[in-house]
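Priority: medium. Attachment 1 of 2:
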């Protein structure tokens, strides 16, 4: 399974209001529950916040990769959010974040979860990819920059 298979254009969001880590995770939880009826926004939020309590998913360079397992998630689900304004996310480098790749996976999806997280890390570890995503000025441009960067990842 690859990122392009689980990230449709409608889950690439441009100019998302920030405010705080909690607000962004609440926004995502509400958004994803509206799009996928089997998911409950409170349950998704609770799982994402629970994961953050283990350690921030802010991986540095203005990027965060919030992720969680959910028993109500049948297949991996991804969303990409570009915030309107950077927020504090307790990232490992202390820098505010403006790019979030959110990943929800089924409870039992060990190998898939790790593979997808590895792809996200590789994708967002590239300064050129981060720059292209930040330069996107619309939802469509953001999705195009994201799919281009995913297409250039080494084959798995």
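Attachment 2 of 2:
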């Amino acid at each position: 399974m690859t990122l392009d298979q689980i990230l449709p254009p409608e889950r690439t969001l441009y100019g998302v209001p920030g405010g705080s880590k909690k607000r962004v995770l609440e926004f995502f939880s509400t958004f994803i529950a509206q799009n996928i009826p089997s998911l409950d926004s409170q349950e998704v939020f609770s799982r994402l916040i629970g994961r953050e309590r283990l350690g921030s998913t802010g991986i540095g360079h203005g990027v965060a990769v919030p992720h969680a397992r959910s028993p109500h998630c049948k297949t991996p689900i991804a969303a990409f959010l570009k915030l309107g304004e950077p927020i504090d996310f307790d990232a490992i480098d202390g820098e505010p974040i403006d790019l979030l790749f959110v990943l929800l996976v089924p409870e039992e999806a060990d190998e898939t979860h790790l593979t997808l997280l590895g792809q996200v890390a590789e994708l967002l570890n590239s300064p050129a990819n981060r720059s292209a995503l930040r330069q996107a000025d619309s939802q469509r441009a953001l999705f195009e920059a994201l799919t281009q960067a995913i297409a250039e990842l080494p084959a798995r």
